[in-house]
């Protein structure tokens, strides 16, 4: 059985879980701004760190209302197990302060009719620690399903599936968009919806459907 057949078999097994998770992401944009803000902080913490560890850190941060007075020192205390805690504490503190000082309505932003691609570039240009992957991750988790989250799990699988020829050492915006398009084409070819494929490849590596 080849890689694509294995992938389709796994998809049949996980399809309902993936659909349920995507429904939760769609509903997320209708939740209060704190819940949306938690997703934003989560996606800032995830690079090269375990998703569940990052989500626990987010829960601890918000349970202790650190977002009310976000300082690097206060935030770092709750980043146990998160890689690069110094940098990420700085990113989170800066972003939380910017959102507060600029009166940036995150809920209004995710619910606006602005195309996903434009929203992504706005986040990349205006917030620290938010690259194409992190912005795509946040937008996916708030109901935008036309963007790829090209982390190491996804890229490694795209290589194994023959979608890309090599895993790039770094991703420029141009390369990111090119791989995203290749992934969309592959999604159409094998008949697995794009948003489902992203979660499927992540679950294949991580062993579960998470976020």
UniProtKB/TrEMBL annotation:
EC number(s) from the headed UniProt entry: 3.2.2.-, 4.2.99.18
Keywords: Coiled coil, DNA damage, DNA repair, Glycosidase, Hydrolase, Lyase, Multifunctional enzyme
Keyword set includes Transferase: no
Species in which this protein is naturally found: candidate division CPR3 bacterium
Transmembrane segments: none
Source lineage: Bacteria, Bacteria division CPR3
GO biological process: base-excision repair
Protein name: 8-oxoguanine DNA glycosylase/AP lyase
Coiled-coil ranges from the UniProt annotation: 1-35
NCBIfam families from the UniProt entry: PRK01229.1
């Amino acid at each position: 059985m080849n890689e694509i057949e294995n992938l389709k078999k796994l998809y049949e097994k996980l399809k309902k879980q993936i659909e349920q998770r995507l429904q939760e992401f769609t509903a997320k944009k209708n939740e209060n701004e704190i819940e949306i803000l938690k997703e934003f902080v989560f996606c800032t913490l995830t690079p090269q760190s375990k998703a569940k560890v990052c989500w626990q850190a987010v829960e601890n941060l918000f349970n202790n209302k650190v977002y009310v007075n976000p300082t690097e020192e206060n935030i770092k205390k709750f980043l146990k197990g998160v890689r690069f805690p110094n940098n990420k504490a700085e990113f989170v503190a800066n972003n939380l302060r910017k959102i507060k000082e600029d009166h940036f309505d995150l809920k209004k932003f995710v619910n606006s009719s602005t195309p996903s691609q434009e929203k992504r570039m706005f986040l990349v240009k205006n917030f620290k620690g938010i690259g194409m992957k992190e912005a795509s991750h946040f937008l996916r988790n708030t109901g935008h399903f036309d963007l790829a989250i090209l982390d190491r799990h996804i890229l490694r699988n795209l290589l194994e599936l023959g979608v890309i020829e090599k895993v790039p050492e770094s991703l420029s915006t141009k390369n990111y968009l090119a791989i995203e398009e290749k992934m969309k084409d592959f999604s159409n070819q094998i008949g697995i919806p794009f948003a489902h494929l992203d979660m499927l490849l992540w679950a294949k590596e991580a062993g579960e459907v998470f976020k």
